[in-house]
Amino acid sequence: MAEAARRAASLDRPTWIMARTQSAPRGRRGKAWVNPAGNFAATYIFKPGGNPASAALRSFMASNALYEALAMKINRDKLSLKWPNDVLLNGGKVAGILLESTGRAGTIDWLSIGIGVNLETVPQGVRDASFPPVSLTGEGGETTDQDEFLSLLASNIATEEKVFEALGFGPIREKWLRRAARLGEVITARTARDEHTGTFETVDEAGQLVLNTPKGRVTIPAADVYF
Description:
Blueprint: H1 2-7, E1 15-18, E2 40-46, H2 52-56, H3 58-71, E3 79-82, E4 86-89, E5 92-104, E6 107-117, H4 146-167, H5 169-178, E7 186-190, E8 195-203, E9 209-213, E10 216-220, E11 224-226
Antiparallel strand pairs: 1-2, 2-6, 3-4, 4-5, 5-6, 7-8, 7-11, 8-9, 9-10
Helix pairs in contact: 3-4, 3-5, 4-5
């Protein structure tokens, strides 16, 4: 992500940047991310146009693409998508997505989609994780090197982005919901100020989590989810 930001001004087309190793990996909302050698870390940087709200919906597009790439290497029934931007494998976290954007006056210039996948190794030293990390091969998936996985992922990202551009968020959202972890079940969403527990009803047209709680229907734009 740092390299994508450094190069953005000089790029004239959508670009993938892959790291063989990382010296300073990072996750969503400033959280630490551990990326042992042999695992996958890459950023897709492009100009989607539109406003920040539209750009944020690309996390669902990327989640769908990541799901399809992983499903080429393991039974897709073992995979699920956790709102807002994680992929679970047998209930453990196998991949995460991080979005960063630049722009002004309510428009997006560049959008970077960072993707980390535990292809081979389960990161050590991850404590108090609600969803313990797992690896693709550790859960019975096929061995996949970084280059092969990038090829699979890039192809699926391109397909999903074409759908988004042509048809909007609707079909992206529908596909994501079909793969959503714990849809229709009770989950907990924690924001910086509140905690809400209720039935995971849907994700709305703005990408927000919708819970049916004892106090009524609650719409949540950003939170950490637990179940």
